[in-house]
Specification:
The protein has 159 residues and is mainly beta. The chain has one domain. It is 9% helix and 57% strand. It has one helix spanning 26-39; strands spanning 4-6, 9-11, 50-61, 68-82, 85-96, 101-110, 114-124, 131-141, 146-158. The protein has a 7-stranded antiparallel beta sheet with strand order 3-4-5-6-7-8-9, covered by helices on one side. The chain has a two-stranded antiparallel ribbon with strand order 1-2. The longest helix has 14 residues, at 26-39. The chain is globular.
Length: 159
C-alpha cells in the first residue's frame, strides 16, 4: 500500500497509530497530540475518507490474570477532513501474547472547539473462556486546554 499524505504527514504501512490506549493515558496523549498536530496544519478537501494501515504493539497488564502481556493491533484507519474539522476512526483485530483475541474500534473528532477520543475493545481467551473489555473516553476543551473527561478502564468480564 502506498503511503497517504495528509496535511504534510505520510501515513503508510510503517505508520504506528497509538490507538491502543490503556492504563495511565500516556499512549493516548501521544496519539492525540500527533493527530491534533495534523489538525492544525493546512486543510485538505472534504473528500471520502482516506484509508491507512494501523499497526501497534505495546505492553499492558491483563485485567483477568494481573500478568504482563503484549498487545498487538492490526487494522485500518479512516481519516476524513471537513474544512478545519477532522474525523478519524479505526477498526482492528487484537491479539495478546497470553492467548486473548478480539476486535475493537475507536474514533477521534476535532471540531476546533473540542477534541474527543473514544475506544471500545473486547477480547476472549477461547481456552479459558475469560473475556475482558477495554473502554476509553477523552474529551479536551481546546479553548482552555483542559481535559474535561479522561476515563480508561480494562475490565475482566470473567468466563
Amino acid at each position: 500500500m502506498n503511503p497517504i499524505t495528509w496535511r504534510g504527514r505520510a501515513w503508510g504501512a510503517e505508520t504506528r497509530v497509538g490507538s491502543g490506549v490503556r492504563c495511565g493515558g500516556l499512549r493516548l496523549v501521544v496519539a492525540l497530540l500527533s493527530v491534533v498536530a495534523l489538525a492544525f496544519a493546512a486543510s485538505a478537501a472534504a473528500d471520502a475518507p482516506e484509508e491507512f494501515p494501523v499497526l501497534d504493539v505495546f505492553p499492558d497488564v491483563n485485567p483477568c490474570t494481573g500478568e504482563a502481556m503484549t498487545v498487538t493491533f492490526v487494522g485500518t484507519g479512516f481519516i476524513h477532513v471537513h474544512g478545519d474539522r477532522v474525523v478519524v476512526r479505526s477498526e482492528r483485530t487484537i491479539s495478546t501474547s497470553d492467548g486473548f483475541a478480539g476486535h475493537g474500534t475507536d474514533s477521534f473528532v476535532d471540531n476546533g472547539q473540542i477534541v474527543k477520543y473514544r475506544q471500545a475493545d473486547i477480547l476472549t481467551n477461547t481456552a479459558s473462556g475469560e473475556r475482558f473489555r477495554a473502554l476509553g473516553l477523552f474529551v479536551l476543551d481546546m479553548s482552555t486546554g483542559t481535559a474535561r473527561v479522561e476515563r480508561f478502564e480494562l475490565t475482566c468480564l470473567g468466563p
